Amino acid sequence: MTLWHLILLASIAVLAIKLLGYAVPPALFDAPRPRRTLELLTVSLLAGLVAVQALGQGEALVADARIPAVLVAAGLFAVRAPFIVAVAAAAGTAALLRALGWAA
Amino acid sequence: MDPVRRAWREGVSVVVATSAYGLSFGALAVASGLDVWQAMVLSMLMFSGGSQFAFIGAVAAGGGVAGVASAAMLGLRNALYGMSVRRVVDPRGALLPVAAHVTIDESTAVALAQEEPRARRVGFWVTGVGIWIGWNLATLGGALLGDLLGDPRQWGLDAAAAAAFVGLLWPRLKGRQAIAVAAASAVAAAALLPALPAGLPVVVAALVGVVVGLTNVLGPRHESRMPDPGGPEHRHGAHERPGPVGSAGVEHGQEHDREGGA
């Protein structure tokens, strides 16, 4: 599969899932168990993505400037900073640490 | 203030904040090996921030097929939003697919935070359509800029992607069950990283959420007392609705909690 195929496949899948929300009878997912499972699936995916994005380099685990950057962002989210501020602060932290040569 | 004007104002502020973040998506997409058009197709057609970042992250690591799976699984929450939004927005005919397409964290949060039916519709459409336009413009800007930036690491864009996932996760960490699932999934994904092909660790670690969700280990006991799903307001369901992106959305969630408790 080329990159274009993957892009179209993933996009159509996400779009189809959105349409599904308007098409299925609400009762199907409105019970506690499916609702909870979908919510925890999202939590699980996001937490896994945080770990892989913060520590992964190819198929290796590395500790570099991303770790302090993510901690800065988490601190800002904890005090209710706006999303874009926390994300920009993380980027700035990593960029600064690398520019100073303090972290890889 | 007039509730409809308030919905407008809240919608526009969420649109501006969220769209700005599209810049980093555009730049990272190009750094991950996509061209400008491919980044644009993702923003126009997929149009779901978390899924888009998950997809390009997997592509950058060389695991495109797993990226499709992660994007789709992360997109499942939008179906849940759709079930709530259609009660308050009630789109008909040709508007229905449009409404579905712009049903994302932010538009759902702004719509459900409003108290009057008309304000809810206004909040939904202003936020959803506004972000679609802003997010795509920002993606284009970021993708064009990304070509000039060179190494994205120099600008900390790799850290920005990790931080963005933290921001999406943060409002969902309510209660020990969610926190335990998040911790276990993060450890599992990191531990599997050296062992599995790129992209798969995240997908496999997501089984933690599914298993805990189905068995309700560590869960609250009174969850079986759910309100009538067909009810027009469905407020208790909204309590469980995951937090949206950004602190603006988090505040909406709390407003809703107060409203529901009243």
From TrEMBL, chain A:
The keyword Membrane applies. The chain crosses the membrane at residues 6-25, 37-55, 67-97. It comes from the Bacteria. It holds the Pfam family AzlD. InterPro entries: Brnchd-chn_aa_trnsp_AzlD. Keywords: Membrane, Transmembrane, Transmembrane helix. This is Branched-chain amino acid transport protein (AzlD). It comes from Agrococcus terreus.
Automatic annotation (TrEMBL), chain B:
Residues 221-262 are annotated as: Disordered. Its main location: membrane. The chain crosses the membrane at residues 12-34, 54-76, 122-143, 155-171, 178-196, 202-219. The keyword Transmembrane applies. It is a multi-pass membrane protein. Residues 221-242, 252-262 have a biased composition (Basic and acidic residues). It comes from the Bacteria. The keyword Secreted does not apply. It is found in: Cell membrane. InterPro entries: Brnchd-chn_aa_trnsp_permease. Keywords: Cell membrane, Membrane, Transmembrane, Transmembrane helix, Transport. Belongs to the AzlC family. This is Branched-chain amino acid ABC transporter permease. The lineage of its organism: Bacteria, Bacillati, Actinomycetota, Actinomycetes, Micrococcales.
